[in-house]
């Protein structure tokens, strides 16, 4: 099972073949074989008689791509269930129900992007008692995963931004801020020194199964941002010639 999960996480197709029942005079042995990057699993029936012992392969069906994806496999492992029953539905079987809670668990295992923080003034320096401007650029995007053998589309967007200014102060907004001169998210540092501001992004999402209606995903996912280096300095007025 460890080999199967590792193979699927790397996107290697898996062929699963049904096991036939052994007859009274025979026994069935499971065998595995790697062929062109695919793991083939098949069963071999060994039959014994008074005159000879032979090996006859049975159930040799063509390999079938299971369609599993890494997000589904990671979710199955976290829930402690078999990925074979969680991520794949055999041909002809009735598809199970994909619930908002199930999609929420899968959403937490998708690689969601962190927001990149922009600071004005630029070049990593700002002034004490100055309205330092912060903003980011992040919008709606989509992802597609396979859950319980079904195609699930996700529509994901930033619902909130958590601004951490590096001096112990923070602020939450529903907007990503904006560049100068449209100052939406600003902060005044009261003393000089070095700080590390960052912005966390809380994502919300909707999903639909096999092209059906859109439904809300339960809960949200917060992705922490990477801190930026910022030096707060003081300035003295100096008269210059005109």
Describe this structure in words.
The chain has 242 residues and is mainly beta. It has 2 domains: 2-65, no CATH class; 100-233, Immunoglobulin-like (Sandwich). 12% of the residues lie in helices and 38% in strands. Strands 8, 9, 10, 13, 14 and 15 form a 6-stranded antiparallel beta sheet that branches. The N and C termini lie far apart (78 Å).
Topology:
Layout: H1 2-9, E1 14-15, E2 26-35, E3 38-48, E4 53-58, H2 70-79, H3 83-86, H4 100-107, E5 117-120, E6 125-127, E7 132-136, E8 141-147, E9 150-164, E10 170-173, E11 186-187, E12 193-195, E13 198-209, E14 215-216, E15 221-223, E16 230-233
Parallel strand pairs: 1-3, 6-16
Antiparallel strand pairs: 2-3, 3-4, 5-7, 7-11, 8-9, 9-10, 9-13, 12-16, 13-14, 13-15
How many domain regions? 2
Secondary structure: number of strands: 16
What is the strand content? 35-45%
Number of helices: 4
- What CATH architecture label of the largest domain applies? Sandwich
Estimate the helix proportion, in percent.
10-25%
Biggest pleated sheet = 6 strands, antiparallel
Cα shape: elongated
Q: Can you tell me the residue ranges where pLDDT is under 50 for at least 5 consecutive residues? A: 1-24, 50-66
């Amino acid at each position: 099972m460890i080999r199967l999960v590792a193979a699927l996480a790397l996107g290697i197709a898996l062929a699963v073949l049904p096991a036939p029942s052994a007859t009274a005079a025979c026994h069935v042995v499971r065998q595995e074989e790697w062929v062109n990057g695919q793991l083939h699993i098949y069963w071999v029936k060994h039959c014994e008689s008074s005159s000879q012992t032979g090996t006859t392969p049975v159930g040799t069906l063509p390999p079938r791509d299971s369609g599993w994806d890494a997000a589904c496999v990671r979710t199955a492992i976290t829930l402690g269930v078999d990925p074979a029953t969680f991520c794949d539905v055999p041909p002809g079987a009735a598809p199970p129900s994909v619930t908002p809670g199930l999609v929420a668990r899968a959403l937490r295992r998708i690689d969601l992007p962190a927001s990149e923080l922009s600071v004005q003034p630029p070049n990593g320096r700002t002034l004490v008692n100055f309205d330092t401007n912060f903003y980011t650029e992040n919008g709606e995007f989509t992802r597609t995963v396979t859950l319980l053998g079904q195609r699930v589309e996700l529509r994901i967007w930033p619902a909130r931004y958590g601004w951490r200014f590096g001096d112990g102060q923070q602020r939450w907004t529903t907007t990503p801020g904006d560049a100068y001169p449209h100052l939406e998210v600003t902060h005044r540092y009261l003393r000089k020194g070095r700080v590390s501001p960052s912005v966390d992004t809380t994502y919300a999402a909707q999903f639909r199964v096999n092209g059906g209606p859109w439904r809300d995903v339960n809960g949200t996912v917060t992705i922490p941002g990477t801190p930026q280096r910022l030096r707060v300095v003081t300035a003295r007025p100096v008269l210059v010639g005109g």
